[in-house]
Amino acid sequence: MRMRFWVLWIAGALAAAGCSSTGAAPAPPGPSNPGTGVSSPNPNIVPPTTPPPNPAPTVPPAASAPAIAPVAPVPAEPPVPPPPAAAVPAQAPAPAVDATSRPYQDVLKLKQAGLSDEFILNKVRTENVNYRLNTAEIVELRSAGVSETVLEVMLRSGQPPAAVAGAAVARRAEFSGLARVGKGFIVFGTSTKNVGRLVVDGETMTWTGSADADKNFSVYARNIKEIFNTCVLRPNQNLCLEIGFVTYTGEEYKFRDPGWKNGENRLVTEVTNYFKQAFPNLFFSARPVNEL
Predict the structure, then answer these.
(1) Are residues 149 and 175 in the same domain?
(2) Is the pLDDT of residue 219 over 90?
């Protein structure tokens, strides 16, 4: 047993020595030294080493941004108040208007009560109400028997002079050559009997005739109730051959052209147009007749 142990130990030692003597390879022969003829030994060969891995590039730390100083909050400007509104004075409420009541209804009631056109005309002129008649009201009045003369006065009632006649005309005029007709006056054809002159001076109208001075007259415009034309009926247009003035006291003055028998009406037309412009608030009418 003990012998065996020593045999194994010696064998192991020999094996270890053999491994150490054969572990390094003999160096290759190098060049001989010229001086000595003995070749110099090869230097120890350094086994190649694996190059170390390239170090990862270092990223310089980013420059830290400069610290921003805190901004102090700007105080908001107070809102500018709007300018005070102009004080509006309190207005009185408009009076209530009865939509069912219209001024023309008073005229309608008077006509239905049997009153005459003359009475209604005087009432309309005195009150001078602006009736503002529309088509339906005119038809209603006409159906009730109100004459066209009354309707014309109602249409002009309450209107300012400028709205009725346009530009104002001087109240001074003279018309020579008119012939007066009426009671005690006869005009035959182109006769110049009782031919005279009609003068307007302000509010006064004066007639001066050549036949009878006692028949001359003067009348104030405010006393004239109606100015009318007497017109002969014609197919296309009536021929107005006479102008007349009616006063509130009942007098009536009528004038024609001396040649009215021949259809002359130049003076009558001139007088009519003048009075319509100079006295627009007076009532004007036309009286159609078949013949004079």
Answers:
(1) no
(2) yes
